[in-house]
Design goal:
The chain is α+β, with helices and mostly antiparallel strands and 221 residues long. It has 8 helices and 7 strands. The chain folds into 2 domains: 136 residues, no CATH class; 78 residues, Pdz3 Domain. β2 and β3 form a beta hairpin. α1 crosses α3. The protein is elongated, with a radius of gyration of 30 Å.
Length: 221
């Protein structure tokens, strides 16, 4: 069952990437007034033989373009009029190109259409990276939130003297902004690091042992 789920996730992920890639070819071709004959997710033939088992699970023609879902769950494609491939015969290639055909367009337009898929994939990667960076950059616990109800002291924290409910008000005698500051390398690797803690009506200084990182590593191991 787990294998089927992983296979499904793989197919879904590839389908999204392929659709975006082919959309790059599609949108640039449309931009330069080329005729796009087909836009398919998955192949409507037995890949890689275009003439074998031709049928689609779904197809609908809108304008000059046939949009469809192929039966062979791998990849996808865009068919642009006048783009030379193995499906065209010599008689077709011998004709004068029509204005809407790929081969009738200037070289720079053909190049942009050919690179359209890669460009969209790069843009997609940048967008995903920015979103993840933004999400992770804002996924922190502020000092105010941390001290709202106090910390939850696990075993190692208890060993250095912290208790559940403690409110950490300073690090090394200075103010701090978030939980990240409490766990920074300067604090955990410092020789004289300490937390200033408010426990009830008391204000305490909790020293961080110089071998705290070693204990943390041993605990994870």
């Amino acid at each position: 069952m787990e294998g089927l789920i992983m296979a499904g996730q793989l197919i879904l992920g590839l389908s999204i990437l392929v659709t975006l890639h082919e959309f790059g070819h599609y949108i640039t071709a449309k931009w330069f007034k080329m005729r796009v004959e087909k836009f398919y997710l998955f192949f409507d033939f037995l890949f890689p033989i275009p003439s074998l088992l031709n049928f689609a699970l779904f197809k609908k023609k809108i304008g000059d373009t046939e949009y469809g879902l192929g039966w062979f769950p791998l990849g996808g494609y865009v068919s642009i009029a006048g783009m030379i491939d193995e499906t065209q015969d010599a008689a077709t290639l011998a004709k004068e190109p029509e204005p809407w055909e790929f081969r009738a367009k200037p070289a720079y337009q053909r190049l942009i259409v050919m690179l359209g898929g890669v460009i969209v994939n790069i843009i997609t990667g940048i967008v995903i990276f920015v979103c993840l960076t933004y999400s992770n950059g804002n996924n922190f616990i502020s000092k105010e939130e941390l001290n709202k109800n106090g910390i939850v002291a696990l075993e190692l924290a208890q060993q250095i003297g912290l208790k559940t409910g403690d409110r950490i008000i300073k690090v090394n005698g200075a103010d701090y902004h978030s939980l990240t500051d409490l766990r920074s390398s300067d604090v955990l690797l410092g020789d004289n690091s300490s937390y200033t803690v408010q426990r009830g009506d008391q204000t305490l200084e909790i020293k961080i042992p110089s071998n705290f990182i070693e204990k943390l590593s041993d605990k994870k191991a």
